[in-house]
Amino acid sequence: MIEVRELTKRYGATTAVDRLSFAVRPGTVTGFLGPNGAGKSTTMRVLLGLDAATSGEALVNGGRYAALRRPMREVGALLDAGAVHGGRRAFDHLGWLARSNGIPARRVAEVLEQVGLAGVARKRVAGFSLGMRQRLGIAAALLGDPGVLMFDEPVNGLDPDGVRWIRELMRALAAEGRTVLISSHLMSEMELTADRLIVIGRGRLIADTSVRELAERFGRGVLVRTPRPAELTEVLEAAGGSVEPAPGGPADGGRLTVGGLDVAAIGDMAAAKGIPLHEVTPHSASLEEAYMELTSGDAEFTAAAETKPTTEATARRTS
Ligand SMILES: Nc1ncnc2c1ncn2[C@@H]1O[C@H](COP(=O)(O)OP(=O)(O)OP(=O)(O)O)[C@@H](O)[C@H]1O
């Protein structure tokens, strides 16, 4: 379990994290999303005791990282895969970590096998590709078999196979009941990997939601196809729905976009009136679109032309 409560972190005049609160529960993959400079890495650094909070709390399993008796057995993290000394061999690097943290030596071979690096265990890290370094960083995070895992941009720079591997590993770790937090600025990736999303911008919480809720919240109505569009329109409008010809086809082709009523309500009303339906499809916005709408105005560096009025974004957020 990860809990962040009213966390603020300032660097001089820069407020990197601003009264941020959220919780990450076991058994889920939680995506930590936000534009560049939103405060994701800073939040993770404070959670891992690498930076001190200006105010508020960042807790792992109910305590501060510094107070954990056996930190690597409680929390595993990958912040910067490039941080390993190139002259070290993978096996020795992990062996040293295991020894200095009271972790049985057999775990080294186990995690190397788990991340697919058993064959290069005796090779120096300097010769590793970015993907191999990411795997080594993940092996280090898994070494103490911790219940809480944090990964900062784990798929950055990886090829499609590497991306898929990380996605499957994250899902498997969560299925084992672990708490998994992954930061990313790529909604498209998180859509496939995460169950829940914490979205931040300029250090503040923008959304704490499930992937499904976010897609529904930004839904674009329901596409309905029927051979009797005029009758259906009358029925649905009488029930308070809004009905328009669907883009991409004339209304007399029977394609309608319905707002304000869900799929079940539309189906029930059509059935009650004996109106056949040939298609009923909820139209959720892609999460990428939802994310762009949520974070517009919250990017640290946004071209002026792309910046939407922030009042609009704020109103939506607080509604
Ligand atoms: N050590 C530091 N000293 C001064 N400012 C810092 C420091 N670390 C982070 N910041 C600033 O804090 C803000 C948040 O940065 P942070 O790296 O946490 O964002 P992020 O969401 O992880 O971004 P990215 O996706 O680019 O990694 C930025 O304005 C950054 O410049």
Question: Descriptors for this entry?
Answer:
P-loop_NTPase, ATP-binding cassette domain-containing protein, 12 helices, six-stranded mixed beta sheet, ABC_transporter-like_CS, ATP hydrolysis activity, Alpha-Beta Plaits, 2 domains, Rossmann fold, alpha/beta
What is the CATH C-level name of the largest domain?
Alpha Beta
How helix-rich are the residues, as a percent range?
25-40%
Mean pLDDT, to the nearest integer, reads 86
Strand order of the largest sheet: 5-6-7-3-8-9
* Strand segment count: 13
State the major sheet. Answer: 6 strands, mixed
Instruction: Write the CATH fold name of the largest domain.
Output: Rossmann fold
- Gap from first CA to last CA: 28 Å
Uncertain regions: pLDDT < 50 for 5+ in a row?
Answer: 301-319
- Give the H and E element order: EEEHEHEHHHEHEHEEHEHEEHEHH
Count of the domains = 2
Radius of gyration: 24 Å
What portion of residues belong to β-strands? 15-25%
Quick one: CATH superfamily of the largest domain? P-loop containing nucleotide triphosphate hydrolases
Q: How many alpha or pi helices?
A: 12
Describe the structure.
The chain is α/β, with parallel strands linked by helices. It has two domains: about 1-210, Rossmann fold, CATH 3.40.50.300; about 220-280, Alpha-Beta Plaits. Helices cover about 35% and strands about 25% of the residues. The chain has helices at about 40-45, 70-75, 90-100, 105-115, 130-140, 160-175, 185-195, 210-215, 230-240, 265-270, 285-295, 310-319; strands spanning about 1-10, 15-25, 30-35, 55-60, 75-80, 150, 180-185, 195-200, 205-210, 220-225, 240-245, 255-260, 280. The strands form three sheets. A six-stranded mixed beta sheet has the order 5-6-7-3-8-9, with helices on both faces. Strand 8 and strand 9 form a beta hairpin. Helix 3 (about 90-100) packs across helix 4 (about 105-115) and helix 4 (about 105-115) crosses helix 5 (about 130-140). The longest helix is centred in the middle third of the chain and has 16 residues, at about 160-175. The two termini are about 30 Å apart. The structure holds adenosine-5'-triphosphate. Adenosine-5'-triphosphate (ATP) binds near residues 40 and 185. Pfam families: ABC_tran. InterPro entries: AAA+_ATPase, ABC_transporter-like_ATP-bd, ABC_transporter-like_CS, P-loop_NTPase. This is ATP-binding cassette domain-containing protein.
